[in-house]
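User: structure tokens for this one?
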Amino acid sequence: MVDIKGAVQKPGVYQLPKDARVKDALAQAGGATKEADLRQLNLASKLQDEMAVYIPAAGEEIPPSSPVSSISSSGTSNDQSLVNINTANTDELQTLNGIGPSKASAIVSYREENGLFQTVEDLGQVSGIGEKSLEKIKAQITVQ
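Assistant:
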């Protein structure tokens, strides 16, 4: 299962064979939009289960803090990608363990009302994010 998003015709989660490549995921998503910049990706890279692939638009760079596993030109995946809770939108926040639409919205609302998070632990001040939730996602998030 691979999540493909960005400048594609039909973003979403697709089931692909174990030996699938980025080009196969792109085909499943209906192909790239005319705004897509495929030069930033290695379309021959092998996919892994639970991987997210982001197809950037022309002029857009894949941010280093992107929640998706971006594919580098060497074909390796960046599994160490962290979600920046100060810039992530609700879709990006939902890639975190245990964060659904309502918690993602609560995080964004809290940030808009109270300003940027100073530490990862500040996320615990958001309604619906308790100690257990925070412990689950602590290794997946960053504050920049």
